[in-house]
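Data deposition worksheet. Section B asks for the primary sequence of the deposited chain exactly as it was used as input, without tags or linkers unless they were present during the calculation. Section C holds the resulting structure in token form. Section D is free text for depositor observations; keep each observation to a single sentence. Incomplete worksheets are returned to the depositor.
Section A, Depositor: J.P.
Section B:
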Amino acid sequence: MTDKTFITHAELDGLLSDLAREPEDYPAKMEELGRQFDRAGTLLELSDPMSWREAPTRKTSFANQFEADIDSIRTLDREDESALARRIEFSRLLVNLVREREGLPSVAERTGNESTAKLPGEVARRENELQTLRKEMVERNLYLVMLNVSRYAKTSSNRWDLIQEGCASLFRAVDGFDWTRGLLFRTYAVHWLNQAFRNHLYNFGRTVRVPVYLQKALKHINAARLKLGDSRASALDIAQEADLSESVVVSALAAANRSVSIDAGRGDDGDTNRLADLLEDDNHDPYSPQLEDVPLGAGLARELQKLNDRERKVIEMRFGLGLDREYTLSEVAGDLGVSVERIRQIQVRAVSKMNSPALRRDLEPYLN
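Section C:
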């Protein structure tokens, strides 16, 4: 191998292409080449993002500009895509080698909150090489997001939220793509895109979140109803037809009942014709003698007595009860000498203890 301390993509592609001609020996030879690069400190070329872009047309709206920017990115053919995938694989090997030498976890084992600024210089450089290559593969396949998101255009989710999820899923697709199988990247990436879109719809499509397994069960239930020809079929009949347990069918049907806000507008009148207007009690008097019978401070003090000393101190500091201000989790943690996560746990437990009918009755006049 040459003694150069820098290698271009074209030179690297030539080396890797020669090794790839013998697929069975490729992994071992690639690792040996990587160790040679690591020992010599050979750096990889960092591509300029403008090298795979054309000058985009300037648009007036963000949506049009975003789509114009994607249209300006030149896509990859099969040969270039395989070469880029080999570069990513080789760069990941170099990162793992330098991480192993520095006593750091591998790329697959590292934590998501790892800061590049705190890494040794050589590790940071190798990480930068890998992220630049991953970014190129993602950007040159962004058109897949726009093509596939159109299938979900009639759903209740915001189109831009789906696009964001799709863009993030492309990074996971890049990390799992295996070029040796002979598939195009888009064939593999479409699976990740559809999975990301469906997960977003399952998790954020409703105000009250329904577990994914119940949403999937509803598909089988609706299919069973069609086969039975009875939209009012019993849960037992549906369970037998859909090959599900009766308890799952009952739970899924109950979850299918959508929640409706009483402040939501009805018809074409918008907020002037709310459901709450139909339910309003004209005889309701906003004044209540309870405001005088139970002072707010007395009600809170009574509930605070249910807590132990540490829980009471955490609640008082976090919500500024009897103090000049509210304190953050880290400030409370520093005062008590424990971790921030421990303070959060104490706060959750204390609030759960105070969540009693008696306190809600005392607070109701003030909240309403």
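Section D:
The beta strands are 6-7, 43-44.
The two ends are 78 Å apart (CA to CA).
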